[in-house]
Structure formats: C-alpha cells, structure tokens
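B., you asked whether I could sanity-check this one before it goes into the benchmark set. Here's the sequence:
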Amino acid sequence: MDGPAFDPTGAIRFDLRRGAASDASDRRLLVVPAAAIDALERTHPEAVASLGSEIGRGCGSNVAARLGGADKVRGAGLEAVLSQLAGELAIAGVGAVHIERWGRAMVCVVGGPSVANETFLSALLGSALGAAAGREVACAPIGREGGAHHFFVGSDRATERARALAIQGKTMPEIVAELQRGTS
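And here's what the prediction gave me:
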C-alpha cells in the first residue's frame, strides 16, 4: 500500500458533558438507529437519497482531509484511498465496503449493510467517492449476492445504463461485460 493505513483514533469523539458527538473535523454528528432511515423511507422516500448523499459526503470529505486534499487523493494509489474510505464508512456504520475491479470497471461492494435501501446506498457511495476525489461520481445497484450489495461506479450515463440493465434482469457479470464492450 502506498499510503497510510486507516487509523480510527479520534474518528468519532463523544463529549458526554455537552451531550455532543463530532468527527475528526469537528463536525457535529448525530448517532441514529438504522431503523430511523427505514422509517424515513416509508414516510418520505425522496429524502432517503439526500440523507445518503450527506452521510457519504461527510465520509469522503474526511478521507480527502486526511490524505491532503482531493488532488492528493487522485494521485494516491487506489488501495490507499479505498482503505481510508472503507474505514470511514465502517465507522459510520454503513457496512464492510470494498472495491472489485472488473477490467476497467469498478464495482463497490457493501457487505452486511446496516441500511439495505439501494437508493440510500447508491447516493452514499457516490457522494463518498466523489467528495474524496473532488469530482462527480455516480453508483448504481447491479445485484446482491449473499448479504452483499453490488454497485457499478462510473459516470451518470454509465450508471443509468447499468441500472437499466439490472432492471432488465441482467446479472452483475453480464452488466459489467456489456458496459465494457460498449454494446449497451
């Protein structure tokens, strides 16, 4: 690995006297049960993506700050960035996150997510990756295997096509192959 390993020390700080929680950048946090997001989905489904985006943006911003900014993130090795991002998302309680490379394609895998809503997870992952790298990134759900959710990572156009192929019933390998061939 060509960068620092994720160090969770100080990632979340609790000030019991003030009744406050904050992250390493002193941004206030609110620790909520995952069931609250499920309830939000039932009552205000349009708000779920927005909430996912905000959580992801915070995690990605922490990675960018830790690695010295978006330019340094883009210049760092993929493994170093992913180690930091996976750590931030684990601290946030998202689940166990890792990236799979399928040729030129990148697939983000979330194992054992605390919130299984794919709209929430897509928005969260895209915002986390985008905030870390300082550029727009989109994610689209392309399948589940066991307890893991798989998301294609790419441009808006590519992820929309991936989403459409998934809705058509294509498997994850079929989706990735079609997108890489450019036949879709």
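One thing to flag: The beta strands are 12-15, 20-23, 28-29, 96-102, 105-111, 138-145, 148-154. Otherwise nothing jumped out at me.
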